[in-house]
Amino acid sequence: MSDYLEKYYIPLDKRQKDMVKNDFHNAREMAFWKKKLRREWSHIEILSFVKPDNTKESLLLGRECKSELVVSIGDLEPEDIGVELILAEQNAKGDYVIKDLFEFKVVEFKDGIATYRANVIPDIAGTYQLAGRMYAKNKAMPHRQDFELVRWL
Q1: Between 61 and 122, where is the model more confident?
Q2: Strands, sheet with 150-152, edge to edge from the N-terminal-most edge strand
Q3: Where would a tag sit more exposed on the chain, N or C end, judged by fewer CB atoms within 10 A?
């Protein structure tokens, strides 16, 4: 029971108090941010996406590969967008199971064009499928599933 309290109830109570303080200032800020992201999300344009091509060459355990996304984000800030590369493995039932995630970092932002990069270093052996995804990101949002915006790359 204490694990459940520590993991869910106490953080939820803290977040609720944070959202309502100062006459709901933080709740209004989050609502404004979500409205802006929903308005701009469909206008985001992928200019280039480079990831390891595991159809031509195997990803080797411990060998670094680079991945890069260049995207036109319009009026958004680069910090409003999270980008990650997913390594998934197919199980015996044919379902894909995520084995590792590599988060991209913003390395450049100029004139509405953001460049994100990640160093991908597989640390477990296996045959993987690779996919990239972009999602709405806000440090005040405790869980990604609190907001529906995701784009697979």
Answers
A1: 122
A2: 96-103, 81-90, 129-136, 150-152
A3: N
Q: How far apart are CA 55 and CA 78, in angstroms?
A: 30
> What is the C-alpha separation between 102 and 118, in angstroms, rounded?
7
- Tell me the pTM: 0.81
Query: Which two structure tokens, joined as six digits, stand for 27?
Result: 């709740």
Beta carbons of 114 and 40 less than 8 angstroms apart? no
Residue type present at position 95: D
84, amino acid identity: E
- Tokens representing 49 are 């996406």
Q: How far is CA 56 from the centre of its chain?
A: 26
Convert the pLDDT of each residue in 6-26 to its tens digit: 877 788 788 888 788 888 898
